[in-house]
Amino acid sequence: MSDPRKKRSGLSRLLRTIFFVDILKGMALTLKYFFKPKITLQYPEEKRQLPERYRGLHRLQRWADGSERCVACGLCAAVCPSECIYIEPGENENGERYAQVYEIELLRCVFCGFCVEACPYDAIVMTDEYELSDYEKERLLYTKERLLAETGFGEKPSV
Amino acid sequence: MDWIDVVIMLVKILVVMVAWLTLTAYNTLYERKVCGYIQSRYGPNRAGPLGLGQPIADALKLLMKEDLMPGAVNRVLFVAAPIIAILTAIIMFSAIPFGGSITLTLGGQERVIPLHIANINVGILYIFAISSISVYGIVLGGWSSNNKYSLLGGLRTGAQMISYELAMGLGIITVVMMTGSLSLVDIVSEQVIHVGGKTLPMWNMFKLPHGLIGFVIFLIAMFAETNRAPFDLPEAEQELVAGYHTEYSAMKFGGFFVAEYGNMITASAIIATLYMGGWMGLPIVGTLYIPGFIWLIAKIAFLCFVFIWVRWTIPRFRYDQLMSIGWKILLPVGLANVFLVSIINYIFG
């Protein structure tokens, strides 16, 4: 392909115009793209490859023995820029603090991930769950039961 | 002419109308699909298999929308404009032959049914006349809307279509001089050569050099006549909102939409008839039994692809460029080509 900045002679320009050289070149380019593989992701059937540190729906973690990690310190609620986390602390029979109520109002959450960074016990993490839309507002108020993970990790430190 | 002839004619008209409307509807999908493919997308593919239900969904949506009539419009012309636009696109099709003839036994006697609605002996003049009338649909739509953008769009269309009609006429005259007839049936049947007892197709566009020059001029003029890119100045979005149909909504807008895509079908059919052998097939082994209308539809599909392909490749011309191409290039070249055809006819004819 010749350099388009190079100045052509008058005759060459005339011939190129008469035989539609530039137009045909453009048409060849679009035809090439016509046959190229398409880049559209057919969303509901095909899903995007998410990055490892994607910030999706929150999840509350447990220790390996099944008890909740959250001690209701309230740092996540304090750091949250959209103030979507509501915590009511309580005390269990062993005298340990835990969250009686832990609610995330997902409609307000901006998925910044500050709560995860603030948590001293790694109790709150973010998953790669992103299909969160719903027809009813009430269902987007995630309660503790819905946020708690089934499985846990790590030995609970003895006090 | 007894009643069976009338019935045959009505059936032919019905078939051609339904075919035209179906082709027009699917032409919209075709455009969106080709556009998508050129832009590395798939285009509509959710409504039905391969998105084939899309035209039905679009039509239903347009039909069920509220039929708005802006307060300041001229009511009669506002409604009449899209009707004129569709009508001129569809009645042009009546002169186009879509096959040779078939013989059927009806009412106890054999009848030869020619596969065209009207074999007008000045068929090409008829098409030329109707395409001039089609300016009215757009100009009236622009004027009756009582909106400055619509009016500008309508005026541009008027100027553009009238300028390019000259070039289009010269493209037609080339064919008429090569054929020696104004009838489209004759023009199709003349596009053959006889070589050693065989009849082979010899499309007008391959009769070098005058046929090809005429074809290119006619093709460019047809782009301008159908208001397709790169000559879609009547609806230049950046300057004129939506041009002549700015004030139109619901099915009245749908009327202009049908007219635009139907014009593409009709224009493709005319180009195919004049320059690409019409309904006659190619001498490919095993295609002898493919009927003529399939060949015509295939050629229409190919030419519509060219229309769409050009639209998604070439940017719109500026208004003065449009005028200078029409008057300073196409018209002189077309005239010179007519002169050339006369010489060739004189020497070989």
Summary?
Chain A is α+β, with helices and mostly antiparallel strands and 159 residues long.
What does this structure look like?
- The complex is a heterodimer of chains A (about 160) and B (about 350).
- Chain A is an alpha+beta fold.
- Chain A is built from five helices and six strands.
- In chain B, β3 and β4 form a beta hairpin.
- Chain B has one domain.
- Chain B has helices at about 5-40, 55-65, 75-90, 125-145, 150-180, 185-190, 210-225, 235-240, 250-275, 290-310, 320-349; strands at about 100-105, 110-115, 190-195, 200.
- Chain B contains eleven helices and four strands.
- The interface of A and B includes residues 34, 38 and 39 of A.
User: By helix and strand content of chain A, what is the structural category?
Assistant: alpha+beta
Helix residue percentage of chain A: 10-25%
Detail the poorly predicted runs of chain B: none
Strand numbers in spatial order across the main sheet of chain A: 4-1-6
Structural class of chain B: mainly alpha
Provide a count of the helices of chain A. Answer: 5
Descriptive terms for the model:
heterodimer; A: 159 residues; alpha+beta; Alpha-Beta Plaits; 2 domains; three-stranded mixed beta sheet; three-stranded antiparallel beta sheet; 5 helices; rod-shaped; B: 349 residues; mainly alpha; two-stranded antiparallel ribbon; 11 helices; 4 strands; 63% helix; 6% strand
List the helices and strands and how they pair.
The complex is a heterodimer of chains A (159) and B (349).
Chain A: H1 10-18, H2 21-35, E1 58-62, H3 75-79, E2 85-91, E3 97-105, H4 114-118, E4 124-126, E5 141-142, H5 144-147, E6 148-152
Parallel strand pairs in A: 1-6
Antiparallel strand pairs in A: 1-4, 2-3, 3-5
Chain B: H1 3-38, H2 54-64, H3 75-91, E1 101-106, E2 109-114, H4 123-144, H5 148-179, H6 184-189, E3 192-195, E4 198-201, H7 210-225, H8 237-240, H9 250-275, H10 292-311, H11 319-348
Antiparallel strand pairs in B: 1-2, 3-4
Helix pairs in contact in B: 1-2, 1-9, 1-10, 2-9, 3-4, 3-9, 4-5, 5-7, 5-11, 7-11, 9-10
